[in-house]
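Please decode residue identities from the backbone states below.
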């Protein structure tokens, strides 16, 4: 195996270091884990973008009273837009619906 890897490295075949039959099968992710990874990646990047936008606006003199609610509003919007860009509108909507189904709902009846 070491000789095979060395020969393939010498021939600049970095994607084929070992033959396919010697590699273990790739583990497929469960749909829930895949959805969670997609949501987390979009949320993380959107948080970074929202923070950068808030920092840039803060440097230009915008007050924190405006920046904090704006950043908290922009973050989920950026997340949704990133999901739409990467996976399409239908998949982004499905991902948002799946995460909303995990959130608790208000079960208290309205006061009359």
């Amino acid at each position: 195996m070491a000789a095979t890897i060395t020969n393939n490295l010498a021939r600049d075949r970095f994607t084929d270091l070992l033959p396919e039959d010697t590699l273990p099968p790739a583990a497929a992710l469960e749909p829930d884990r895949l959805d969670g990874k997609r949501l987390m990646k979009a949320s993380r990047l959107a948080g970074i973008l929202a923070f950068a936008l808030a920092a840039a606006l803060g440097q230009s003199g915008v007050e924190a009273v405006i920046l904090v609610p704006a950043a908290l509003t922009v973050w989920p919007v950026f997340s949704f837009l990133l999901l739409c860009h990467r996976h399409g509108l239908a998949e982004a909507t499905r991902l948002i619906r799946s995460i909303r189904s995990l959130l608790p709902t208000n079960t208290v009846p309205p006061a009359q």
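Observation: Residues 74 and 84 are 15 Å apart (CA to CA).
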